[in-house]
Amino acid sequence: MAGDKRSLLPLQHAAFRNVVAGRFVNYLGNGIAPIALAFAVLDLTGSASQLGLLVAVRAVSSTAVMVLGGILADRMPRALLMRGSALAAGVVQAIAGTAVIRGWSSMSLLVCLAAVNGVFSALALPGSMAVVPQTVPKDLLRQANALLRMTTNLAVVVGSSVGGMLVALCGSGWGLIVDAATYAVAAFFFGRVRTTGTVAPPRRRSLLSDMREGWSEFVSHTWLWIVVLQATVWQAVWAGCIQVLGPFIAVQGIGKAAWGFVLASYTAGTIAGGLVALRWKPRRGVAVGVALTSVSAVLPLGLALGDSLPLLLGAGFLAGLCMEQVMVASGAAVQSSVRPDRLARVASFQIIGSLAAVPLGQALAGPLADRTGTRDFLVGGALIIVLAAALSLSSRSVRNAGPPDEEPTASPDRESRSVVEGTR
């Protein structure tokens, strides 16, 4: 019972509750938006290539300004940046939804709006990660990250279901309008987050100087860049094996609907993993999390071994549960060990490093699988996942990484003082 109570202690802090509420609503919209936008493009053009172009443009625009988002979040109140970005993104989605409903949308308009929306999302993301230590005491960071990830994963699942129903019943344009409304609600909650504002006195420095300072902080933590490098490899393999070859194999075997259940089992595993991370706090959390990433190899192996739906469902669930441990542990370790006034910039490099290889993995999977054979490619991908985890663990820095020893938990009535003192 005591463990259950401690797991929920972050929710006793008002600032954190508002961050959770805002991100839940935001990710609810993130679940709705891709479905609504996909059908808007397909209704307009009937072309999967055009849909791929829109997704690629949004990804490129988001990546291009991610570091800028980190710089701004280290220069100004993070909650304010999150609120402003949410409001701006909401306006963009409202324009897109109105254009689709009124019949004056075009592919060029949707692509431009998707690019702008990607910019605003990227401006907010590093700050949303860096604001967490300003809302709870340091010894509750693991529980706080577990709660945040668990609620956002749940929001995406709910949002995807709601998005499908909205598009089917009302049309893709109204799906985009509902997404715009979720941004407005998220902005309301972000506006209620009370922190110390900026974490360092304003300085007259160039953006380039701030970027260099953030990069220096990032590479100074050996365990961090090693884990991010491992994540880059994992993302490339996962994108190729699961996102590209998974549907291809499913069509030939278990079917499209069954493959959807496999992907849902992975998401269910991440939610269960969040519940585990709430109560389980291993002494070397990062090392344990890195070791558990090797377990995710069971899903590409399952695809290679056959088309047994029970096997794939179990593998997907286990992979999601294990991957969530490294996400929670590394997030808490970064927030504890990186200087507060550089945390958002470090988070931006962490995000870019983790996601940079996804398009590469998606692009290379097909040609490489044609050369090696689909089954051999999947087995090779599974082996690379295990090898990358082993190489990461070979570093003493990774094995020893983690938050410092726990300090006494601040009570809610001391929240304001403890957060202020911890972030100046």
Give an account of the 3D structure.
This protein is mainly alpha-helical and 424 residues long. The protein folds into two domains: 1-197, Up-down Bundle (Growth Hormone, Chain: A); 207-403, Growth Hormone, Chain: A (Up-down Bundle), CATH 1.20.1250. It is 80% helix and 0% strand. It contains 19 helices and no strands. It has helices at 2-7, 14-45, 48-64, 66-75, 78-102, 107-130, 141-170, 172-191, 207-220, 222-252, 256-279, 285-293, 298-305, 309-337, 343-355, 358-372, 374-393, 396-400, 415-423. α4 (66-75) packs across α6 (107-130), α7 (141-170) packs across α14 and α13 runs antiparallel to α14. The protein starts with a helix and ends with a helix. Mean pLDDT is 85; it is low at 405-424.
Brief description of this entry?
Helix content is 80%, strand content 0%. With 424 residues, it is mainly alpha-helical. The longest helix is centred in the first third of the chain and has 32 residues, at 14-45.
Quick tags:
single chain; 424 residues; mainly alpha; Growth Hormone, Chain: A
